[in-house]
Structure formats: C-alpha cells, structure tokens
Design goal:
This protein is mainly alpha-helical and about 290 residues long. It folds into two domains: about 160 residues, no CATH class; about 100 residues, no CATH class. Helix content is about 60%, strand content about 5%. The strands form two sheets. Strands 1-2 form a two-stranded antiparallel sheet. Helix 1 runs antiparallel to helix 2 and helix 9 runs antiparallel to helix 11. It is elongated and about 75 Å long.
C-alpha cells in the first residue's frame, strides 16, 4: 500500500481524547464516548430487553391458548422473573465477551475498557453493572410503584434520586457513571474495524520476514491491539509499537513503521489461524504456546 492510497490518520476530538498506557508500555490514544452516545446505547438495550419481554408474553399467551389454561397471573410472574434476569445478566453477559459491549453499545461503536489500561476483568464488569440497579432500575421501579397520588413526597424523592444518577455523567469530564467509578472502567469509542484486507492487503509480503519464535511471542489479545493501532494510523504510536515488537521478537526493521506493522499483523494472523486449526489458541502473550 503506497502513501497515496493510505486512508488518512484518525484524528479524534481533543476534548475526549485520553492517553491509555497498556501493560506493554505502549501509549494508545482512546476517545471517550459522549453522554448522548451512552444514553442512546442504553435506550437501544432497553428496547431489546422490552422486545424480549413482549416476545415471552406472546409465547406464553399462545401456549395458554393451545393448552387451554389461563395465563393472566402467570404473565405477571413471567414479566417479573424475565425482567429481573435480563436487567441483572443482560449487560454483564455481553460485556464479558471479547467485544466488551452490549448490542446497543456495538450499534453506537462503543465498548467498555479499564481506566488503568489493563485487561477488563469480570469483577470490574460485575461492579459497574450492579451499580446500574441502584442508579437506574431501583428509582424507576419506585416511581412506578409509588404513584404521585399516593405519596407525592416519596414520588418526588424517587425522581430526584433517578435524576442525580442519570445526569451524573454530565458533571465529570470523563463522562463516568457511578458504576464506572466503582468498577474502574470507562466507555470508549470503538469504531467498526476495517476488514483484514484493508489492514494488511494481499500486496504485503511476509514470506521469510518473521521466525516462528517471533510469531509465538504474541497471541490473540495482542493481535487485537495491533488491529487498533493500524486502524488509528497515528505515526507516533505506530513507531513505538513497531520498535517494541522488534525489540521483543528480534525481528529486523524494514520499511516504514506502517509497512512493518502491516507485515507483522498479516504474518501473526495467519500464524494464529494455522495453530487454531490444530486446536491451539493463545489468548495473549502469557498463555504458553
């Protein structure tokens, strides 16, 4: 890929750009999600949850009609059980996946990350999502359960409680929820990745450039980080990453940092895919080959 055909480097808004130093010592710039983006992602997720509840209700109604039994009270029980399960496990389950994002976040190009640059842990995801119950679902439940006509003061307090937590991200520069503060996380922009062929096209030759030992030095996690580096095309970051790989693997430098990283990315991807065919998959550099 020559300079004329290279896509322009991604330049994120400075107000939302933060430095994120990985355990490898590599400085990656990340872009924080705006409060509006996070709210839109949450609304999409809530719509999905509501859709599942409606689907469960329709299925139960059809089952009742076929088997000829009343489902009125049963529907209420199902709503309570399914709603409890979804609101407690939906967000956690999706954020535990490698994409670290619910369907709503993925649609908006967002994902969860650790603020210290480390690997996203199950404990952090659990903490941030447990707090959502306190921040959002408990006050909303109280608002609907109390009703203004029954106890106006309690209704007002529930609204204030809900408002404080919902608006909290607007009053800190990193747009953090209380759950983010407790879990040590933040939500960042994760634009849709280019196809692999765009990151390392067919014209990139890798034959004989890297030894098996050099390719065994990294795993799937590092391949994902390298994809992110190639997608952003930040010259300083690419230079630092290329030098780090050369130092760790003993690979000889050649071409520009971009050309070196494209070649190493393609070779590493092919190497990992070939090993996967034999049932061996390295999660990261600490996983023994």
């Amino acid at each position: 890929m020559n300079a004329a055909t290279q896509p322009p480097a991604y330049t994120p808004p400075q107000a939302r750009t933060r430095e994120l130093v990985t355990p490898e010592g590599i400085d990656l710039r990340i872009v924080l999600a705006e409060a509006g983006e996070r709210a839109a992602a949450l609304l999409l997720d809530l719509v999905i949850i509501l859709g599942v509840l409606i689907g469960a209700t329709i299925a139960l109604a059809i089952m009742g009609a076929v088997l000829n039994f009343g489902v009125g009270e049963l529907i209420g029980v199902v709503w309570m059980l399914v709603a409890f399960f979804l609101r407690n496990f939906y967000f956690t389950a999706f954020e535990l996946t490698p994409r670290a994002a619910t369907p709503g976040k993925r649609a908006l190009g967002l994902r969860v990350a650790m603020r210290d640059g480390g690997r996203l842990t199950a404990e952090a995801i659990f903490l941030r999502n447990v707090m959502r119950e306190v921040e959002l679902f408990v006050p909303i439940t109280l608002v609907f359960a109390i009703g203004f006509s029954e106890d106006g003061l309690a209704y007002l307090m529930a609204l204030i409680w809900c408002g404080v937590f919902v608006l909290f991200p607007l009053f800190n520069k990193d747009r953090l929820r209380v759950g983010d503060l407790v879990g040590g996380t933040w939500v960042v922009r994760a634009p849709r990745r280019l196809l692999d062929i765009d990151l390392a096209g067919d014209e990139v030759e890798t034959e004989g450039l890297f030894s098996a030992e050099a390719l065994d030095a990294y795993g799937v996690k590092e391949l994902t980080v390298l994809e992110d580096v190639l997608r952003r095309r930040d010259p300083a970051t690419m230079k630092a990453v290329a030098e780090r790989i050369q130092y760790k693997t003993g690979a000889r430098p050649f071409g520009s940092p971009l050309e070196f990283l494209q070649a190493y990315y393609k070779a590493l991807r092919l190497h990992l895919e070939s090993r996967l065919l034999f049932g061996r998959r390295r999660r990261d550099k600490y996983d023994k080959p």
